[in-house]
Amino acid sequence: MKKYLILLAFITLAAACSPKAPDIERQIYGILSQLTLEEKIAMTHAQSKFSSPGVPRLGIPEIWCTDGPHGIRAEVLWDKWSQARWTNDSCTAYPALTCLAASWNPEMSRLYGESIGEEALYRKKTILLGPGVNIYRHPFGGRNFEYMGEDPYLAGRMVVPYVQGVQSKDVAVCVKHFCLNNDEINRHTVNVNVDDRTLYEIYLPAFKAAVTEGGAWSVMGAYNLYKDEHLCHNRPILMDILKGEWGFDGVVVSDWGGCHDTDQAVHNGLDLEYGTWTDGLFTGPSNVYNQYHLAQPYLDGIKSGKYGTGELDDKVRRILRLQFRTNLAEGRGHGRFVCPEHSAAARRIAGEGIVLLKNDGGVLPVRDAKKILVVGENAVKMLTIGGGSSSLKAKYEISPLDGLKARFQDAEIAFERGYSSGAAREQDGISAKFDLTESRSPEQMVADAVAAAKDADYVIVFGGLNKNGHQDSEGGDREDYGLPYGQDALMEALAATGRKLVFVNISGNAVSMPWVDKVPAIVQGWYLGSEAGPALADVLSGDVNPSGKLPFTFPYEFKDGPVFNEEQYPGIPREGEDIIDEYYTEGVFVGYRWYDTREVKPMFAFGHGLSYTTFEYGEAKIKGRKLSVAVKNTGDVAGAEVVQLYISDPECSVERPAKELKGFKKVFLQPGERKTVTFDIPDEALSFFDADAHKWVAEPGEFIAHVGSASDDIRSSVNFKL
Ligand code: BGC
């Protein structure tokens, strides 16, 4: 009884201290009645590249946005993309979201969200423009590195704690790019043709989770079109689904330059317009923002009676709600910026996301090395810059070469560049610290690397893509599935030396590796941010036992994948119109759903990732809808295993993927330790989206639950009935 009273007192006190939703709604109502029409209109569009006005006379602050999603972007000039050259805006660069997804650990997402949220708060930002959860549809997607992989369930589970972590710091996320923004080529003119089942099963769930479970306070519309309407003002997606079915009460922000039409912007769900006319300049810096679709044209439309004020009040109410949740939140803190805790978080997340793809003969971890030859431009190139809007001005970035030098102080560490991207030494106004000037021919660079490899115990190559144009970068897709800059020739030549060879692939996309059978150890190293070097050295040395698993499939060749013809990608130009139609004819068969069902063997499967120890699975048992399986660490080092649950529905009225991910848990085990992992299997995990009935349906009958270490490494399966 006493405990109950204390709890009751505590709850009452907590309720009295935090402004409750009804209070906020009451205040919003009051403010709305005091605002002039002009003030309301002003609130719905930008006043600079990254800010929109408040109402000073009522104490309502400006809204300030920042990219997102891997660190807090450097300040830019008021009307331009160019850097403002502040000296106090260098941030902590966190690993790319592909790496976060590869950790398969929601705790890492929470840590990521809280840390980056603190950095945003310190920089006085209202909205962080991220995270991105567009589904990885094919490996040419220029922005796949900013997203969370090919599986809607994994992306959904991983995005929720990120959202909650950021927003726990009174900074709003802006989940992007909603939706169907799966490639960069023609990004403003692509019209996606996709059936409802595929939309609901593949492309919406991660956004839905971010909104309905994460409670995201803002969402960014995408550049492309769906049903012939741009997604920044798209009736079916924003009004019917987001604000209708999901009950979203936050703000829809346009992508920068994604708003095209006043009528649609008024009626189809857009609340806040940013970045129109790309460089922010239209008729001149003094009045341009006033020309935005939701500015003077909107005001004129209301005054002439073309538009009512109901939509405007709704937009303003949402913007005020966001203000109360962020800038006006009671007890809003000050955050912190580039501190040891954030560096530690970045290193930890990176360590959990790095994936050991291959380790023949236990080449890794590096042991007893007297000489290590490090090869490859990505061992020294700054990779926190480039890639588009996610480019960062990092306070520091430790390269893989420096990370290895610090870790292996007793060994001789030599470096050979091996290949050259011919990269400029400056990107986005930020100078790379390493001089990348190169005068040797590609053949000479390979020959020099081979010569240097002769007396090395280990040869560790850092290659992959690099966020240059078309190499994991916004605004343009990749044009080739192969590795660029002659890296294949380099790998063939190094493999022929017979040294212990390790390839670390730095990318946010799958790449081909025609030499895969000749190289004993391969690591997926992502873009890891400030702590790249130490995190990679942790894994290569064995200080950290790798536990990452791939969030997307690596096919041998691009044509093996679900998207292989022109109508699917890059689409068919529509006659007489500035529209390119893309047809998602692969339907729900995206990623492993395709490879598994069509029995195409990938090079590295979804969910794949090795460890320096081994895990033994017991038999999966099912009681009712609770599945349990024992997992034991059978090696001699501590490690973590991601136990994955897939469900098959062998008989169904619609064609279903061979299996689909419906649960996962990361378990940490000491040598010899055994734990039982349990999963509840809700109806949701058995359902498909019935487009005709417009609802999720689980058809009674037989199902199979599979548990395993990867989508192609199922250890135990068990049948059950609904
Ligand atoms: C990108 C967004 C980004 C915005 C602001 C756009 O080009 O698509 O992801 O947040 O610019 O930089």
Percent of sequence in beta strands: 15-25%
* Number of helical regions: 18
Rg calculated over all Cα atoms: 26 Å
Let me know the largest β-sheet. Answer: 6 strands, mixed
Fill in the CATH topology of the largest domain.
TIM Barrel
**Poorly predicted regions:** 1-18
- β-strand number: 30
Distance, first to last CA? 43 Å
**CATH hierarchy: architecture of the largest domain:** Alpha-Beta Barrel
Q: Tell me, what is the CATH class of the largest domain?
A: Alpha Beta
What best-fitting shape do the alpha-carbon axes yield?
Answer: globular
Strand order of the largest sheet: 11-18-17-16-12-13
Percent of residues in helices: 25-40%
Structural class based on helices, strands and sheet pairing? alpha/beta
* Ligand names: beta-D-glucopyranose
The H-level CATH homologous superfamily of the largest domain, spelled out, is Glycoside hydrolase, family 3, N-terminal domain
Structural domains: how many:
3
Give the mean pLDDT. 95
